[in-house]
Amino acid sequence: MNLSISLHLLARSPQAGGLESRLVPALGEEGALRLQRQLVARVLNLPPMGFSERIFWLEDGPDESLEALAEENDWMVVGQPVGDLGERMRRIAVLGLAENDAVVLIDHFCPILDANYLAEACEALVEHQAVLGPTEDGRYVLLGLRRVDPRLFESIPWGSNQVLALTCERLQQLDWRHGLLPTVWMVDCPEHLPRLARLGYKLGAT
Q1: Which of 53, 96, 138, 191 is the most exposed place for a label (fewest CB within 10 A)?
Q2: Which PANTHER family does the record match to this protein (predicted)?
Q3: What is the distance between the alpha carbons of residues 110 and 93, in angstroms, rounded to a whole number?
Q4: Which spans in the chain are helix H?
Q5: Is the pLDDT of residue 37 over 50?
Q6: For the chain, what is the domain count?
Q7: Rounded Cα distance, 46 and 72, in Å
Q8: What confidence tier does 145 reach under pLDDT thresholds 50, 70, 90?
Q9: Angle (CA) 159 163 167, round 5°
Q10: Cis ω for the linkage preceding 62 (within 30 of 0)
Q11: Which CATH number is 188's domain given?
Q12: pLDDT value for 188
């Protein structure tokens, strides 16, 4: 079964005050912003992989360099819709499913999310109505859907370690067959920097 799947990257324009602010004590403000830019650029440089479309949803934009990189790699650049994270994700999923069999939504703070991980998600969507990419801290970095229900996104404490568990609970209530990909890690605190360094990232305030 071949599915038409659209890929959606949600990211903030690198600027002071975002999630990267947790890294400022270790990297300095400029270093933290530069790291966020590296993480977004890494995803934008992933191969197309046969997705029907790839859309870069940028919050707090514009960002000329990232938008230029996205366009060079055939991503469509769009401003994120209004609302909290859950409402934005719901709207994006609805739009993606209007002309596709499935959607995959991803974050950029996972430095090991690669083409193979995305391929696993697409394969899982053939047999499941939903697929999640769990993170070590109880959230998820990837959400794949073949249908949408507002209950997946309502009253979720985004950023907490309950996101994954609550989402899986909602999927069970909806009686949707769902799959879990291998657990990965996200960068959002100084303790993760040694792992980044081992991956070859150049870290520092200068």
Answers
A1: 191
A2: GLYCOSYLTRANSFERASE, SLL1095 PROTEIN
A3: 20
A4: 24-44, 64-72, 85-97, 115-127, 163-174, 193-198
A5: yes
A6: 1
A7: 12
A8: very high
A9: 150
A10: yes
A11: 3.90.550.10
A12: 78
- Residue 206 pLDDT more than 60? no
Using alpha carbons, list the distances in angstroms from residue 143 to 32, 63, 125, 146.
26, 25, 10, 10
Q: In the Cβ-directed half-sphere of 193, how many Cα atoms lie within 13 Å?
A: 19
What is the span of the domain harbouring residue 56? 5-198
Indicate whether 96 belongs to any domain: yes
Place of tokens 């947790």: 22
Q: What is the mean pLDDT of the chain?
A: 91
Distance CA 9, CA 16 (A): 20
Phi, psi of 146 (to 5 degrees): -110, -5
* C-alpha to C-alpha distances, 88 to 79, 118, 145, 183, nearest whole angstrom: 11, 21, 15, 24
pTM to 2 decimals?
0.93
Has residue 204 been placed in a domain?
Answer: no
Range with the poorest average pLDDT among 30-39, 119-128, 144-153, 178-187: 30-39
Q: Is residue 203 part of a domain?
A: no
Q: Judge whether 40 lies within some domain.
A: yes
In terms of Cβ atoms closer than 10 Å to its own Cβ (0-12, 13-18, 19+), residue 179 is middle
